[in-house]
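Researcher: Go.
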Amino acid sequence: MDKIYVFGHKKPDTDSVCSAIVLSYLKNKLGFNTEARILGDINSETAYALKKFGFKKPEILNDVKLQIKDVNYLKNINFNYMDSIFNAYKFMNKNKVSMLPIVDDNNKLYGIVSMKDIARNLIDDSYALLDTTYDNILNTIDGKEVIRFDENIKGEIRAASYQHQTLIETADLNEKNILIVGDRNKVIEHAIEKNIKLLVLTGGAKLKDEHLDLAKKNKVNVIQTNYDTFKTTRYISFADHVSSITLKDGIILFNENDFVTDFTEIASNTRYSNFPIVDDDGICLGLLKLADIKEQKKKQVILVDHNELKQSADGLNEANILEVIDHHNIGNIGTSLPISFRTMPVGCTNTILFTLFEENNVEIPKNIAGLMISAIVSDTLLLKSPTTTSLDREVLQKLSKMSGIDWEQYGYDMLKAGSSLKGKTKEEVLYSDFKNFQIDEHKMGIGQISTFNIDEFLEDKDSYIKLIDSTATNNEYDILALFVTDIIKNGSYIFYNTNAEELIKEAYNLDKIEQGLYLDGVVSRKKQMAPYLMDILKRK
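Model: Structure:
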């Protein structure tokens, strides 16, 4: 069963992370193969919750783009560099490919060989030189071992086409020669006396006993074949190591983790049609053709706590979305097939997940219940947020009873642990819980942090205002706002890019506005921040 990735939005908050873990647990209990992931690093509040209930931080999923490993390319098609050209040719014919990845003894890519390279070798003068193994020669000319002294055979190929006397006078045979000869005893005797490297007997010819003894004495390798001299001469050069014609420089290859889009762009602009695929250690995995990218195995994903394309994983349009569970407004994510889309107007995604456990009659373990409590407390700000519903309250009470946790005291401790700014950079504070919004041609960003000690933030507010202004300018935000929510007072202080001052003033119908203005009762980004600011941009 293919793995399914379950993840929340970018800039993950406690509900997003806990929802992924909780839903993954439920799905696995129902027989699926899922894994919870996150799309970015977690904040200190979420880290507190995970540690409290004994969960490791999920691994980061950088994207869900199609990678080469998701394509059904030709695997296990590697060919060893010490094997013969003849076997390489047969291997290519059998597998219907025009190019082979050649590998070393550790299966690392050594080079490539094509049918054109084999054809070129046929008409190259170097075919008369052979540097290979005894076994390669046996296999190539369908030979029979007669005498073997050497595993490696290196020499110049000669065919005994002259008269015996002419051969003696002109050939000058020596230990660097490979002689192909039929049933010509005088030539055979002369060649053995000259200590040639290899004697190849064609047409099924056999050595006389005295020649056999002499060959053993002089350590001459002998092979017999039923091929005639002409066919043997044609074939024997193909016994050479395939490495002799292997291209090793300027090879276009790809890593299995490379994106399909990058492969397509590069492959479409080269004269090649086959490309070796390797892993991070250089191990050759197979061969990919441009036509193979049609057979793709898309990543399977389930989205929680979001359904906006910009808030989700990069490359989402290249994945198969199987399910969405969310408590926000319907966004712009589209699918090619019908899916399960569960959305409810509640304060937290984990409230919806609780109903799924009930519907499927799956018991909730105490540690899972603890994560669900963490999420609901975080998203509803201890049930004080206007997004809180009666169902959130009911679910929180049930989870508290299941786990034996005083949700109010635990929630206070968790929020306090997460609200400290100690050790954080200004950028980390701004982006700790940040979401982007696109309204027609307008761009908006809203960050929100919660605190029990507003003075900790206000003492450095000028630096934050400067950061907000520069970030808005550099990233072309029409509105960039940071809401600092005071958990005790149940309201938020707003900080914004200077150019958006009139927009924010109009959005909240204010007579006057200044940086750090306190908005009483404004604690929900979903209901009291994003809608107000989006509405004013729509009217521009």
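Model: DSSP finds 19 helices and 23 strands in the chain.
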